[in-house]
Structure to design on (530 residues):
DNA sequence: ATGTCTTTGTGAACGCGTGCACAAAGATGG
DNA sequence: CCATCTTTGTGCACGCGTTCACAAAGACAT
């Protein structure tokens, strides 16, 4: 999973647990594939395997939606596809705006997985005047001056932020002020939003760092002893590069950091 | 966060909980920003706010790494940056290959957040011969025939899959066979890998679907009564579009689905 | 030195999510 | 109509993660 999870207290959403909601799209994907192969029914076991989860978990997840299965048989594929789609709100049209048409924004604009799920790219917005009018993935880019107008006219409630981190918060603020209540954030920053607005974060760098952690684990199973020893006692103070205290000045070579210089936009 | 989480039983990694590991990059980001502003120390409260988490959680997270703070003062920024970097394995160089240089692959290749964290794009690989040799983000694309050779020569252990879903599993198999033990998967498919290999998934479509779910919640707070009633009794059978039973044939218009036709690559 | 004040580090309680294991439900065959 | 077999739906227990709340630790002033 990518990472995101800047949710409100989570919890109640008419009973359906967050963890279950997060898996519904997974089930839906597997079911859609079965549907295309005209498979009429599936058992929890088969579907669970296709979705990559435990079958008990799948059954419990479905139990939150209702009793849609038939004991001794399994689940009706078409029916489940509809029920899950409805539960996720995919039976209606969701206009989406993408702000920040750099490499990533352009990739998102051309992403096929949106249209097939009821999401419609209503507009592409960028702050660069040179981009205005230029078609990306068949959709002309509009200038960010018109952001509010676009949101309101199209009744957009979902916004995707693919701008550099430096301007993400202000873009976010404008989106929210204009009426957007759900945001998918690709910029590497923590966005603060008022209550009632959902933010999900996707951070490529974080995913890689998590992988690196496990990779390091796997690689140095024995060299760990050395590292651990260093941390153990206060000897760490003597061993580790930057002194635990002092060295206030910016001694570290300023790396490109990540606040700016991310995603050309 | 994106979504991914196709982990092994999770659990022990020398004590540090998965949830904590997933937050370390967040803290690191906030700390790096402070470091650039030459801030010498931070309290758990301040840092927590910058990272968007609870201060108690942050302190507990840090407690897994050791006692790096000073009571009454806070944490030494430079020292913490180093400790977290080391824990995440970012003090070493991680060569990464990106397979599938479509819109998304190209965006990833040009992503600034990689280099700044010790990740180095060692190679870009694509199956299209027309792409071979063409520079993307300054790096010449290589043909997938050479995949194994590239992995081995560069000692790559982390691979990024940005291909269409249809070929993701076979690309994954080849990567693993060649020695890759960590995979970041952007293709909308469940990848099966042998034990010892980590897979993290980022699925843009899933993130949007989760947002749509909450959005629907927010929008129809009263129209829910109507929907619930329909599901309640067996009347659902009479109301809902696809009949719970029968209708075996591929009546559904084959939508672009998601197995193929995703990410041009 | 001693007292006060700030902030960490953590014990303990709580809640959510997961997985087992089984009873209930229905299909199917005789 | 009854027996058997399959598969769902769920009660229950367990473990991880989160949060509270506070004692211990150190800085700082007097």
């Amino acid at each position: 999973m990518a990472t995101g999870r800047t949710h409100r207290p989570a919890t109640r959403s008419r009973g359906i647990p967050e963890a279950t909601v997060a898996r519904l799209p997974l089930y839906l994907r597997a079911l859609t594939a079965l549907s295309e192969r005209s498979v009429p029914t599936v058992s929890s076991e088969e579907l669970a395997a296709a979705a990559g989860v435990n079958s008990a978990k799948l059954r419990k997840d479905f139990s939150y939606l209702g009793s849609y299965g038939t004991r001794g048989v399994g689940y009706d594929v078409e029916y489940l596809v509809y029920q899950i789609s409805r539960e996720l709100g995919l039976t209606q049209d969701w206009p989406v705006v993408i702000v920040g048409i750099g490499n990533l924004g352009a990739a998102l604009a051309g992403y096929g997985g949106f249209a097939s799920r009821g999401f419609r790219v209503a507009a592409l917005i960028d702050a660069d005047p040179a981009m205005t009018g230029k078609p990306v993935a068949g959709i002309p880019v509009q200038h960010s001056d018109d952001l509010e107008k676009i949101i309101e006219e199209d009744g957009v409630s979902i916004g995707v932020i693919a701008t550099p981190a430096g301007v993400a918060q202000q873009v976010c603020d404008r989106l929210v002020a204009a009426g957007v209540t759900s945001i998918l954030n690709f910029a590497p920053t923590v966005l603060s939003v008022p209550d009632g607005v959902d933010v999900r974060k996707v951070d490529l760098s974080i995913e890689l760092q998590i992988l690196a952690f496990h990779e390091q684990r796997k690689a140095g199973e024995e060299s760990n002893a050395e590292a651990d020893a260093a941390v153990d006692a206060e000897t760490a103070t003597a061993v580790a590069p930057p002194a635990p205290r002092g060295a206030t000045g910016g001694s570290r070579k300023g790396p490109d950091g990540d606040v700016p210089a991310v995603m050309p936009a």
Summary: Residues 214 and 262 of chain A are 25 Å apart (CA to CA).
